Amino acid sequence: MTEDRWKFVSHSPEETERLGRILGSLLRPGDVVALEGDLGAGKTVIARGIARGLGIQKPITSPTFTLINEYPLDGAFFYHVDCYRLGQHRDAGLEALGIGLADLPDESGIVVLEWAGRVANLLPSEHLWVELHHMHMKESFRDILAEGRGKRGGELLRTWRAKAEVKS
Ligand SMILES: Nc1ncnc2c1ncn2[C@@H]1O[C@H](COP(=O)(O)OP(=O)(O)OP(=O)(O)O)[C@@H](O)[C@H]1O
Ligand SMILES: [Mg+2]
Asked: Which ligand 1 atom is nearest residue 35's CA?
């Protein structure tokens, strides 16, 4: 495994949220976090942690039906996107364009996408990719694989890992 990949196990929703909080504290406008994983894997849980790490106190609900939830930050926005309903077909990218996804990210936005694999062709080359997987026989364990893509993605991965591995 290269230094641009990090694999770890979360043992509880609280641990996943904590990881998100640490990541959120590192993000700045222009950053993109792509979340992938099965139904109920914990994408929204980690997204909630990211929002908390950004200082957002509002309830974080899944944007399954709204597609995008927008939260104001100081001089920027946090966009929480759910690509589930964009489907898996070839023209998913076109549908995404239709909802304005192609305009994200911009310099004032921090973007977290659930089911990011469905808009893989629209992701900027620099992003942090995070996969969450259920583990057999372990109800509350999740295998999490993070990959830093591009310069900024790699930088985020290294600082996130360093902070998360400090025992708290
Ligand atoms: N280690 C864990 N990390 C995250 N969530 C966990 C963990 N263990 C159990 N859970 C539970 O799994 C569920 C994860 O739900 P969540 O909505 O975050 O999943 P999701 O990946 O966003 O699903 P969807 O594809 O429907 O959007 C929650 O009920 C949470 O309490
Ligand atoms: Mg979700």
From this structure: 21
- Domains of the chain plus CATH, in order, are 5-164 (3.40.50.300)
Taking only the tens place, the pLDDT of each residue in 27-86 is 999 999 999 999 999 999 999 999 999 999 999 999 887 788 999 998 899 999 998 877
Q: How far is CA 166 from CA 19, 143, 161, in A?
A: 11, 19, 9
Centre of ligand 2 from the C-alpha of residue 114, in Å: 6
- Which of 15, 35, 45 maximizes ligand 1 atoms within 8 Å of its Cβ, making it the mutation to test the pocket? 45
